[in-house]
Amino acid sequence: MKTSINLERMITLDVIALDVSNGRSYVVHYSDNKCLFEGWMIHNQEGLNGLLARSQLCQTVPEIVLEATGVYSRVIERFCQDHHFDYYLLNPLEARKQTDSLRVNKTDKSDAHKLALTHYFMERKKKVGIDKEYQEMTTLSRWYESNGYCIQIEPLRRRLEPLNA
């Protein structure tokens, strides 16, 4: 991760940053390092249509920045993939480290602003969408493990081992 400042990037970049929570996000839109919009968005069709309309107002194709919040951020990820937006899905620890230099009290609003502002000078890795099938398998695997099926099967497996020997 580089922290060098790219002046061309700072001048010509539209950034939409979201602080994602359960069912809603705080959205900020920066262009030329100036905040043009901020407000709440509900994670429903109307909210996503509003986000699409906001992106169409941008001077350039916007880069969308958000923290990975599991199931909460998947709605926004899917939106970005469906509309072919470049998006940056940050690990929460990575985002915290990158935004710590901007001293502001922690709130949903300030988090979104800090994500947008740091995007102008941080080199971040674009998120590449994964196949739906792979994502579904990962989700099912986590569900399987969280429901204790692995724990229930293991004692049975141990009891069957002597029979197979």
UniProtKB/TrEMBL annotation:
* GO biological process, any: DNA transposition
Q: This protein's superkingdom?
A: Bacteria
Molecular function terms from GO: DNA binding; transposase activity
Transposase IS110-like N-terminal domain location: 17-145
- InterPro entries per UniProt: Transp_IS110-like_N, Transpos_IS110
Name of protein: Transposase
Source organism per entry reads Fundicoccus ignavus
